[in-house]
Amino acid sequence: MNGHPDVSGASIRGFVDPDEFQSAIHAGDDQYSLLERxxxxxxxxxAAIGRVRLQRGRELLPRVATSAxxxxxVGILGWPGDGRLPIVxxxxxxxxxxxxxxxxxxxxxxxxxxNDFIAVTLDAADLARAALDLTGHELTVTPGKIMRPPDxxxxxxxxxxxxxxxxxxxxxxxxxxxxxxxxxxxxxxxxIILCLMQGEARKESIPRGRRASIAKLFEAAVDEHFDTPxxxxxxxxxxxxxxxxxxxxxxxxxxxxxxxxxALRRLHLTRRALLWSDHRSMTVTDIVTxxxxxxxxxxxxxYKSLFxxxxxxxxxxxxERRDAEIPVSFGFKPNPHSSAVSLRL
Length: 345
Prior knowledge:
Layout: E1 9-15, H1 18-24, E2 28-34, E3 42-49, E4 52-59, E5 63-68, E6 73-78, E7 87-88, E8 91-92, E9 98-101, E10 106-110, E11 115-123, H2 124-135, E12 146-148, H3 151-170, H4 178-198, E13 200-201, H5 208-224, H6 232-239, H7 243-253, H8 258-275, H9 284-289, H10 296-307, H11 311-315, H12 319-322
Antiparallel strand pairs: 1-3, 2-5, 3-4, 4-11, 5-10, 6-9, 6-11, 7-8, 7-10, 9-12, 12-13
């Protein structure tokens, strides 16, 4: 799902597994951890509209996740819902703001409840050509830049996206028509380009890109050494920063201490292993200790507190029971305050 789509097409999927949801998000990776107990549910509309990749996602539970843009793609990330906005790259997003998605950009996303997002990306060279054709000016996308377009332009962008989502949901075969695809693509490209060119940038005093990269190294170290008991000095040595720096980075980017993130990731990685192991050949102790956990009692209490069941109950699940929950149904409702956009197909 992370490559450039070869042909136009669309899919609408519901998810009850957070790892599957994260892997389906364009530029998503395997760093996705729920922060609160509850029933996970998400829906993702994914449409390749000519040169444009559009994803509209909704999820229910607070989480922390990371992403890394491909080296050849750029775009815009926005949040059209009325809920509390996420913290991205250590910055609390504000109403009316969008984030630029730049080449190879690494990001950390933290939500505090239900999250509704839209991401629109395309090849950097295609965007540059489209910008020249539309405005006669060159366009450079700054990775991680937070911008506030004029209200009417942002409304136009989201209204166009809502219209495109409704079109592909109601009539998926619409993208089989080259004329319809070209019309949808142009309708999306114009407000994207104008938002990128006219959006007023938020002034940032912290070089968040570098800090996000270091936090990404920390996360990779946690997953790479999941089977080894790790202390803070070990993590500092692996990442190559002092303890004070690592603590500050984790608090800014992930919203928690390094030790808390390590414990949280081990809980999630262990749950993944328990779900896909055979209880007839593996024991809870085997699996938990292979993930660097030795205080089994405390781990079991933390596990049940987050996931609502004991590790042994997870291990005993059959494949049928793992998939027995029905995905949460989400309705995609247009913003009643947005102006209507007519797409001539």
